[in-house]
Design brief:
Oligomer: single chain
Structural class: mainly alpha
Shape: globular
Number of strands: 2
Strand content: under 5%
Largest sheet: 2 strands, antiparallel
Radius of gyration: 18 Å
Strand order of the largest sheet: 1-2
Number of helices: 10
């Protein structure tokens, strides 16, 4: 492990950088805690809400993909520890990555975001290239902005009802910043200490978005095969949306593509 990654790590305990963990079992445990009716607090008033359905939950898919990528990154980091250009381990735990991935889109369920989500659901804009595509991009821009701003608010509602693990600022930061590119227009990393860790969730979410045939993705252009998905991820790495090493680990070690 390089000195630059040791100096500001939150924890240097031996088991912090996990390399042997059952992602499916961990995902099931996290999901069981947040599925179904949940106690929440809205502006000091106790209430309840259901954010995830046990029958169908795309965020569960994203959580598993993000967990697998986080695990593979840590495994590579340990294997390459003696190499000068080896990858650094993640600065948060795999569990924290997965919890953040599960909750990253919670802002879409905020009351301020609901009207725009409903407009997207009213039409299937897959494949449109004319006016439909322009409408889709306009609505998507609004949804991205609103749900990233309201995501931390939704997480606070759960936290205030007793979810102590949500005191971790990383969880809300992912909800707020997962839509951002990895680098700025000038090729510099975004000014967030967790830029790589957030990008793990972004890669998992974007991959699921372009490969899923579920109704929640009906407003996106249709790409249903792995080859198109890999091309999209690599193009995104070239233009700065993703960290290139993370993309290559995802492609080779998580989805098993060339």
């Amino acid at each position: 492990m390089r000195a630059s990654s040791v100096g500001r790590r939150r924890s240097d305990l031996p088991d912090f950088v996990q390399t042997n963990i059952d992602i499916d079992a961990l995902a099931a445990g996290i999901f069981a805690r947040y599925v179904g009716l949940q106690p929440i607090v809205i502006e000091g008033t106790p209430s309840s809400a259901t954010y995830f359905s046990p029958e169908y939950c795309p965020d569960l898919r994203v959580m598993k993909l993000a967990g697998e990528l986080a695990l593979r990154v840590n495994q590579r980091a340990v294997a390459e520890a003696a190499e000068p250009d080896g990858i650094d381990p993640l600065r948060v735990t795999i569990r924290e990555i997965m919890l953040a991935a599960l909750l990253h889109d919670l802002g879409k369920q905020h009351e301020d975001c609901a009207p725009f989500i409903e407009l997207l659901r009213e039409r299937d804009l897959r494949g449109d290239t004319g006016e439909g595509a322009a409408q889709r991009e306009y609505l998507l821009g609004i949804v991205r902005d609103v749900h990233c701003r309201k995501g931390p608010c939704m997480i606070d509602r759960l936290r205030d009802a007793g979810r102590a693990e949500l005191n971790n600022p990383f969880i809300a930061t992912v909800a707020r910043r997962h839509g951002e590119d990895y680098t700025t227009n000038y090729g510099q990393r975004q000014g967030c200490w967790w830029a790589r860790e957030i990008n793990v969730v972004t890669i998992a979410d974007d991959y699921d978005a372009i490969t899923s045939k579920g109704p929640e993705r009906a407003y996106r252009p249709e790409r249903t095969n792995t080859e198109d998905a890999v091309r999209m991820l690599r193009d995104g790495a070239t233009r700065g949306r993703y960290e290139p090493r993370l993309v290559e680990i995802f492609v080779s070690d998580v989805i098993g593509a060339a």
